[in-house]
Design brief:
416 residues, six-stranded mixed barrel, alpha+beta, 13 helices
């Protein structure tokens, strides 16, 4: 019997036995299904989280640099007391950076400060505890925020501090009961402002603050309500470098000017933080790598249980088919042919369990993408990994029962 014929015969016998024991087959794949579901679902979730974060970072570009009081922390030790007495970024520093920076390195510069606990009132609704982002310079060029309607501030509105405002998507709906508020006016802390635009909906995007419930104002006008470098106000200077510029060169240029502005001596430490969007991307590989390892460990326990279940079922199957094995051997069946039947059976059960688990992940992921703003990214590599793991589990679980069956004495087997 050649290998092709042996394979066909083994597969035919395997499927025949599986059909004859449908309930046992279904119960056998349950443990594998749970294990593969755990592994694939967690890997898919972390992959989706990573892709969503990277999409938000890539949308802005990798040459975005923030000058701020606090450095961004990504776990580990964070010596906050060292940064507590640092000054916030100021408008004067923004102007110096904008004027003195090498324009072959720096493309756009902007300043913004944020503060909360504001009251916004329209003729229809009143909303409390609204956050305000006050901007100056090339803020919208750098951040590339999309508008659902209207326009951004013009140069005169920014320079003169006109009472114009751009409203976050959710706040706009709340103020006018779902109507578009563009062209209408509201009161911010008792001061009238005209709404010139509405930000596009951001939803629960990953990778930064959310802006669906804020108001954006010119910095000059917003200083009626809050001043930079005062308690509760967070200030930042944001710089966008040219695409062909090395981030290291941009970092050096900003540090040179900031140290000069703050009159730091050569031995003095920086009293400002230079935060880069690339810091988020650099941290992703380590963070998600650890999560993936955790996923494999969690799923591994389920697969271990499922593997033992498959092995037990295969031992039961060997015992039930002892007389059939003896008959096959008496008719000249070789050990490889006997082994292949049980190995194929174990592998097929495991593959079936893996496919069911992957199908559940796909279904739940599709529902999550449809009913939430979090986008699920499916990966064929992750799915193939799940199938590959199940095949390995099947081979490991089936090898011992297969060897037991192959080594049976045909005479003894026929007597049972």
């Amino acid at each position: 019997m050649n290998r092709g014929t042996m394979f066909k015969e083994s597969m035919a016998l395997t499927f025949g036995f599986l059909r004859a024991n449908k309930l046992r087959s279904v119960l056998s794949v349950l443990g594998i299904t749970i294990g593969i579901f755990c592994i694939v679902s967690i890997l898919t979730a972390t992959h989706s989280l990573e892709q969503n974060i990277r999409a938000n970072v890539d949308k802005l570009g990798d040459k975005i640099v923030y000058v701020q009081k606090w450095p961004w922390g990504f776990g580990g030790s964070y010596n906050w007391w060292e940064y507590l007495n640092r000054p916030e970024a100021s408008i004067a520093e923004y102007k110096r950076l904008s004027n003195e920076a090498d324009r072959s390195l720096v493309k756009d510069v902007a300043f913004f400060f944020e503060f909360g606990n504001n009251k916004v009132k329209s003729p229809l609704q009143e909303v409390s505890d609204v956050g305000i982002t006050a901007i100056k310079g090339d803020f919208f060029k750098i951040n590339q925020w999309e508008l659902a309607s209207g326009r951004t501030f013009n140069d005169m509105e920014l320079a003169k501090g006109k009472n114009a405002a751009i409203v976050g998507y959710s706040l706009a709906l709340s103020l006018y009961n779902g109507q578009n508020p563009e062209g209408k006016s509201v009161l911010i802390n008792g001061n009238k402002v005209n709404i010139i635009g509405v930000l596009a909906k951001q939803g629960n995007a990953i990778g930064g603050p959310q802006y669906d419930d804020i108001m954006v104002l010119p910095a000059v006008f917003a200083q009626k309500f809050a001043k930079p470098n005062t308690q509760g106000v967070k200030s930042s200077i944001v710089i966008n470098g040219h695409k062909n510029v090395a981030l290291k060169s941009l970092d050096f240029e900003i540090k040179r000017i900031m140290r000069s502005i703050r009159k730091l001596r050569p031995k003095d430490k920086d009293n400002f933080a230079i935060n880069k969007l690339t810091m988020i991307s650099d941290q992703l590989n380590q963070t998600f790598g650890m999560i993936d390892i955790a996923a494999l460990i969690i799923g591994g326990f389920s697969l271990l249980v499922g593997g033992f279940g498959i092995a037990n079922i295969m031992f039961v199957s060997v015992k039930e088919r002892t007389s059939i094995i003896g008959l096959q051997k008496a008719l000249g069946a070789k050990r490889n042919f006997i082994m292949s039947q049980f190995l194929f059976e174990a592998v097929i059960l495991c593959i079936a369990g893996a496919l069911i688990g992957i199908l559940f992940v796909f279904a739940l992921g599709t529902l999550a993408s449809h009913f939430t703003s979090f986008k699920i990214y499916f990966s064929s590599t992750i799915f193939m990994l799940g199938v590959a793991i199940s095949i390995v589990i099947g081979l490991i679980a089936g090898i011992s029962p297969a060897l037991l069956a192959a080594r049976m004495d045909p005479v003894e087997a026929l007597r049972k």
